[in-house]
Amino acid sequence: MPALAKAAWVAVVPTAFLMALTPGAAAIGNVDCRKVRQYFVPCAGYLFSRSAANPSVACCTSLRRLNAQSKGPVRQGVCECLKSNAASLSGLYQNHATSLSSKCGISLKTAVSFNTDCRKA
């Protein structure tokens, strides 16, 4: 899931906070960005905490589910949703966002960054 690491979101940050974030695009192509955001709720503790060394098991499980469902054009849409949302998040630790996929053992075709070309995802 190419956008996973861009976007880069556990229980330290309340779910309500994540849902209240700048909504970004409601949909990109055939992907509902609100649903994509939900997969990152268990990752909030890792993404917003400098002291978190690793994402939680729940985070990685959730992201693996999203990755398994994200094929072809859907993968590109997920990538674009995550880039859009990540750009508007205050307090997001970029190094945690970019390392999330590798920390969860998710192999991606493209480098993870806020500038990833989602067409290559």
Characterization of the model:
The protein is mainly alpha-helical. Helix content is 47%, strand content 3%. The chain has helices at residues 4-7, 15-19, 33-38, 44-47, 57-69, 73-87, 94-103; strands spanning 27-28, 31-32. A two-stranded antiparallel sheet has the order 1-2. A hairpin with a 2-residue loop joins strand 1 (27-28) and strand 2 (31-32). The protein is globular, with a radius of gyration of 12 Å. The termini are close together. Keywords: Lipid-binding, Signal, Transport.
Mean pLDDT: 77
Individual helix count: 7
What is the overall silhouette? Answer: globular
- Helical residues, percent: 40-55%
* N to C succession of SSEs: HHEEHHHHH
* Percent of sequence in beta strands: under 5%
Helix/strand class: mainly alpha
Q: How many beta-strand segments?
A: 2
Cα-atom Rg, whole angstroms? 12 Å
The largest beta-sheet arranges its strands as: 1-2
Low-confidence stretches: 1-24
